[in-house]
Amino acid sequence: MEGKKIQRTTEQKGKLKKNERNQTECIQRWETNKNRNKKEKKKKRKHQNGKKFAAFHYSFPHFPPSSSFFFFSFLLLISLRFIHFPPFPIFPLCGVYFFLLFLFFFFI
Q1: Is residue 97 located within the same domain as residue 76?
Q2: What is the reported pTM?
Q3: Percent of the chain at pLDDT exceeding 70
Q4: List of long-range contacts for 37-46, beta carbons under 8 Å, 24+ apart
């Protein structure tokens, strides 16, 4: 690179022309920014990998906190069968209930 040839010792730096000095400072700044950007990219990558792992870990095997709501609503649905005097159509509603449960756990 042409810019690297301009770099000299500190004693000679005072003798450099103004535009050459600016060029060397720009090169040094560019190199430090490049290193800083590399470090930031590594940090981001680690953070994203952690996020991906956590998302995968909690999405499939882990039940959400609202699972208790589903459990109690199912109990309520079954109890309606016995409370409601004319025969309450429980089986179609169970089908709808389990279908919604399936959608909730596997697609959200």
Answers
A1: yes
A2: 0.23
A3: 33
A4: none
